[in-house]
Amino acid sequence: MSVRVSIVGGSGYVGGELLRLLLFHPLVTVAQATSERLAGKPITVAHPNLRGIPAAREVQFTSQDRLTPCDVLFLALPHGDAARAIDRFAELAPKIIDCSADFRLRDPALYARWYGETHPAPHWLEQFVYGLPELHRDAIRTARYVSGVGCNATATNLALLPLVRVGLIDPTRDVIVEVKVGSSEGGAQPGESSHHPERSGAVRSFAPVGHRHTAEVVQELGLSRVHLSITSVELVRGALATAHAFASAPVSEKDLWRAFRATYGSEPFVRIVREKQGVYRLPEPKILAGSNYADVGFAVDEETGRIVSICAIDNLMKGAAGTAVQCMNLMCGFEERTGLEFPGLHPI
Amino acid sequence: MRATCPECEAEITLPEGTVEGEILTCPECAAELEVVSIDPPELALAPEVEEDWGE
């Protein structure tokens, strides 16, 4: 029997990626996808890659007030909208996966600090599990409500997790993370800064300090001294986190291999990339476009103890919709890889 | 027959008929390795050829 899923906010980039994945998922049926702006129109108006796909013909955008009950509801709404309407959404489906930042943080005070406002539904925060399977797989399996992940936070968390778990980092020193990101992170709504002649070719340091995803790294890794800088580069999809940390004791490349294998050796969607020869020796987001893999790698300066830990993802996949579907698979008792095995393209 | 990569400590299965002096590539870290002994199986980093990897 097929699980019925619906997507609220189906015309945006994350909504489109969810549709692409779920229309091909063998164990689910897409019941509804909402868009207020495009209600009544075929979903291919927003997502032309889905043209000609029989399952896509069955779905046209509908407005939120015509949503009917389903088994799993995905929310892919602008910041704040999910939190303001969560009581109503919870009446429509027993399981919810929210891709926004609304329910990622457990502590309302941390939310207020990073989002500059009081949380609209603070009593819901503790009901959501942070939806990164590499950190919370068992809790996700039994959760009714799962929050999606921030793309930059995911690249950072996956880069740093092995170092934190094995205790390689000196906790008295700061960890600095530079994340280079593609333009799709800005979403489907245009603005002056995304106008093609302004954005094309840009290397734009758009959040040198104060990026909101820092809160997710602090919460999930328990690091207090972690600092993110985000730079948008000439990519549509992709995020590359380069984390600089200092070791608590002398550390070698072999120590890092052990830490990364211990953390990710059996993870279905994390690959260790640290090769001695070839063109792609370290993680590179280009070859991950459309794929749910996170590639992680590292280098160490043994003289200074500086560890450089690197993670590449597709921001719309492992950084958003792909991980959300991975969570759905866990919540529904499906094999975790189902519908997510596309390996990406080369050359691209 | 299994041996350990001296670069990344991956467990590598040596193909049937491997002989001493053979060069193989570690499937995990792509290091060029020389089979320096068969019994017991032992691998060492092979001399590196000149680098051609840059910007």
What would you say about this model in short?
By secondary structure, chain A is α/β, with parallel strands linked by helices. In chain A, 28% of the residues lie in helices and 21% in strands. Chain A binds chain B through residues 253-254, 257-258, 272, 274-279, 281, and chain B through 7-9, 25-26, 28-32, 53.
Computed CA radius of gyration of chain B, to the nearest angstrom: 12 Å
Principal-axis shape of chain A equals: globular
Low-confidence stretches of chain A: none
Q: What is the count of DSSP helices of chain A, taking H or I runs of 4+ residues?
A: 11
Question: Which percent range describes the beta-strand content of chain B?
Answer: 25-35%
What does this structure look like?
- The complex is a heterodimer of chains A (348) and B (55).
- In chain A, a hairpin with a 4-residue loop joins strand 13 (294-301) and strand 14 (306-313).
- Chain A is built from eleven helices and 14 strands.
- In chain A, helix 1 packs across helix 11.
- The longest helix of chain A has 16 residues, at 151-166.
- The model of chain A has no long low-confidence stretch (mean pLDDT 97).
- The two termini of chain A are 38 Å apart.
- With 348 residues, chain A is an alpha/beta fold.
- Chain A is globular.
- Chain A is 28% helix and 21% strand.
- Chain A has helices spanning 13-23, 54-57, 81-84, 86-92, 108-115, 133-142, 151-166, 196-199, 214-221, 253-264, 317-331, and strands at residues 3-8, 28-34, 61-62, 72-75, 95-98, 128-130, 145-147, 175-181, 204-207, 226-232, 239-246, 270-272, 294-301, 306-313.
- Chain B has no helices and five strands.
- By secondary structure, chain B is mainly β.
- The mean pLDDT of chain B is 92.
- In chain B, a hairpin with a 6-residue loop joins strand 3 and strand 4.
- The interface between A and B is small, with 12 and 11 residues.
